[in-house]
Specification:
By secondary structure, this protein is of the alpha/beta class. The protein has 3 domains: about 110 residues, Fumarate Reductase Iron-sulfur Protein, Chain B, domain 2, CATH 1.10.1060; about 120 residues, FAD/NAD(P)-binding domain (3-Layer(bba) Sandwich); about 120 residues, 3-Layer(bba) Sandwich (FAD/NAD(P)-binding domain). The strands form 4 sheets. Strands 3-2-1-4-15 form a 5-stranded parallel beta sheet, with helices on both faces. It has a 5-stranded parallel beta sheet with strand order 5-12-6-7-8. A 3-stranded antiparallel beta sheet has the order 9-10-11, with no helix packed on it. The chain binds flavin-adenine dinucleotide and iron/sulfur cluster (SF4).
Length: about 450
């Protein structure tokens, strides 16, 4: 498997928002860690990386061992070091916060160790003795990759079916480029695949190209890691004008190719979650002068992370709170403005508050569709509000079929997908070798 990304990509203009540590900065930061007994930072990490242990290894100049501690828990430790919302996970729970002292920069230390491991091409893992069993994994995102790597360590053959031509899922196509660019995500996939024995078939959409029945005949177990679907639509007049996009769709275009914002003076992003905040920051970073987020809620309690929104504000983004878009205006088939109405504290429109904003680009960040329709042909696979229903080990209720990541959790973070993929792999292994009933 090789994924060749176009060399010219709009995302290339972005610099890292969080800078990398050099050797001496890493040593100083690592030596600040208190190596807490019962460390709260470990509990805050969905993959339960032994954080004090990997930090201590940096402090004692054992970077190779440090990276291994990270990868032993989370094979996507390199990307998670860049993309994890550490402010609300490990760093947010570091004991230093309670002392009024800056917390340990755990993400940056993790990036330090894992980047060196990649640069030095250190290899830590090999495939287990072949078991003769085969697992099919749907989607080549973080959940399936974490599951496939773990399954290879147990010796099971793996085939990953990916509908796109690129691998890595949203880590490649969705994550903000000031956190990680697509080529780095692809580097990670290749590093994970270097364990050998994971056959990735790109350009294959399940069940259209290979039916569930065929998959069941080919494989002894299946893992559903197909994530979420396309951006939700707003269904207001003018949504079909050129220049109105789903945010995740537009971000993918910007990360994998070129988008032109030369004629865009004013842009509007609809939504108040993390995708909306990423989108406004990305549009500012692409050079658009005026970027406005329109959200039906208010700043306190918005669904996006406050620390990300604070960064957006510093970058010059403005927001209209308690505001609902009612229609898009257009000229010559292209969007030229957004008509809005203000909402009261019950989120009801207030008569007489209609107003309009100029906009040559509008991104809709109001959620992604669920892909439950994909599994309609498997009646024992239950869904709950569009998510694949699973038990704590990722078992769906249908013999040999497991799921994890966004498809099952409804849309969380890369680190959750990594944790769920690995957990499901263990359950699949139990099922394959133990002849379990699952
Ligand atoms: C815009 C955006 C920014 C984000 N930023 C961050 C961030 O900064 N930090 C963070 O931790 N998380 C972030 N996330 C969330 C994170 O990317 C996801 O939680 C994570 O990627 C989920 O992994 P997954 O493997 O479950 O699904 P995905 O990454 O979505 O991978 C699923 C894969 O399945 C493939 N697929 C879908 N249908 C089929 C089919 N029928 N047949 C075959 N293949 C199929 C898809 O093409 C895709 O490659 C972001 C999400 C979005 C939308
Ligand atoms: S909570 Fe902070 S100080 Fe304690 S082990 Fe974790 S990173 Fe180190």
């Amino acid at each position: 498997m090789t994924t060749k990304l176009p060399i010219a990509r709009s995302e290339s203009v972005f610099e890292d928002y969080k800078s990398a540590l050099n050797d001496s900065q890493a040593a100083v930061e690592a030596n600040r860690c208190l190596y807490c007994y019962d460390a709260p930072c470990i509990k805050a990490c969905p993959t339960e990386i032994n954080i004090p242990e990997f930090i201590r290894k940096i402090a004692t100049n054992n970077v190779r061992g440090s990276a291994k501690t990270i990868f032993d828990s989370n094979i996507l430790g390199m990307s998670c070091a860049r993309v994890c919302p550490v402010e609300v996970l490990c760093v947010g729970d570091c004991v230093y916060n309670a002392m009024g002292v800056p917390p340990i920069q755990i993400g940056k230390l993790q990036r330090y160790a894992t980047d060196i491991a990649y640069a030095k091409k250190w290899q830590y893992y090999e495939a287990g003795k072949a078991t003769g069993k085969s697992v099919g994994l749907i989607g080549a995102g973080p959940a399936s990759l974490a599951a496939a790597h773990e399954l290879r360590r147990y010796g099971h053959a793996c085939t990953v079916y990916e509908k796109r031509d690129v691998v890595g899922g949203l880590n490649t196509t969705g994550v903000a480029p000031y956190k990680m660019k697509a080529d780095r995500a692809v580097d990670e996939v290749e590093w994970i695949l270097s364990i050998g024995g994971i056959d990735v078939k790109t350009g294959v959409s399940i069940p259209d190209d290979v039916s569930w029945d065929e998959l069941a005949k080919k494989h002894n177990a299946l893992f559903l890691g197909f994530g979420l679907g396309p951006d939700s639509e707003l269904r207001v007049p003018g949504q079909d004008f050129g220049g109105v996009y789903g945010a995740v769709d537009y971000i993918e275009k910007m990360k994998l190719g070129l988008v032109s914002v030369a004629d865009v003076k004013h842009a509007v992003v609809v939504g108040g979650g993390n995708t909306a905040i990423d989108a406004v920051r990305e549009l500012r970073g692409l050079g658009i002068e005026s970027v406005t987020m329109i959200y039906r809620g208010v700043e306190i309690g918005m669904s996006g992370y406050q620390h990300e929104w604070n960064a957006a504000k510093e970058e010059g983004v403005r927001a209209l709170w308690r505001t609902l878009p009612t229609a898009f205006d257009g000229r010559d088939g292209r969007v030229s403005g957004v008509r809005c109405i203000s909402l009261d504290d019950q989120k009801q429109p207030i008569n007489g508050t209609e107003h309009a904003l100029p906009a040559q680009l509008v991104l809709l960040a109001i959620g992604q569709a669920k892909l439950d329709a994909l599994v309609k042909a498997m009646p024992d696979v239950k869904t709950d509000k569009g998510r694949i229903a699973v038990d704590a080990n990722g078992f769906t209720g249908r013999k040999g079929v497991f799921a994890g990541g966004d498809a099952a959790n409804g849309g969380k973070e890369v680190v959750n997908a990594a944790a769920e993929g690995k957990r499901a792999a263990r359950a699949i292994h139990e099922y394959l070798v133990g002849g379990g009933s699952q």
